[in-house]
Design goal:
The protein is α+β, with helices and mostly antiparallel strands. Helices cover 29% and strands 36% of the residues.
């Protein structure tokens, strides 16, 4: 096993991509609301490495507002097919405009149009109204590229803690915890 948490994550993520039937990049994102309550939802991992774990969203969404107010988050990957979990905790920072532009450009045209049409997390009067907004946006951009909306970007979660959980018989699971120490990592084990 690797003593580098990013290398270990790469190994486990590669195995999950082969074994997990749906969305191995799906992760639970937990944020903190203004009243101190936790809030979680599923998002998709769009990049990772020593700089952090990256996801994208509408900045005006609930999660965007919570991250603006409290720039810390926790992530959880649960790969049931390989009986493993990875927990990540740390501060959050915005991706660069260039990173956000590049990722946005890689999305399907309809996904880019949907980002313009949706007021993510806001109350919606009707599905028909949303679909009409989508049609309006499609007409607006019919003759050209679909640029990234100003309210749409991404975040890096820079880990301060990464825990690797491996299922074992009789609930004698293995838990390895990496804690950031300056530019390196301290490693230890946790009781299951």
């Amino acid at each position: 096993m690797s003593d580098d948490p990013f290398a270990l994550f790469d190994i486990w993520f590669s195995e999950a991509k082969v074994s997990e039937p749906n969305d191995p990049e799906a992760m639970a994102l937990a944020t903190v609301a203004a009243d101190g309550r936790p809030s979680s939802r599923m998002v998709l991992l769009k990049g990772h490495g020593p700089e952090g774990f990256v996801f994208y969203t509408n900045l005006d969404s609930r999660k965007g507002g919570e991250l603006a107010d409290h720039p810390v988050a926790a992530l959880l990957f649960h790969w049931k097919s390989i009986r493993r979990q990875v927990r990540i905790e740390g501060p959050v920072s915005a991706v660069s405009d260039a990173e956000a532009d590049a990722y946005f450009a890689s999305r399907s045209r309809d996904s880019r149009l949907g980002a313009w049409a949706s007021d993510q997390s806001r109350p919606m009067e009707s599905r028909d109204l949303f679909e009409a907004r989508f049609d309006e946006v499609r007409d607006r951009f019919k003759d050209g590229d679909v640029p990234r909306p100003p309210r749409w970007s991404g975040f890096h979660v820079t880990p301060e803690r990464i825990e690797f959980w491996q299922d074992r018989a009789h609930r004698l699971h293995e838990r390895r915890l990496f804690t950031r120490d300056g530019d390196g990592w301290d490693e230890g084990l946790l009781y299951p």
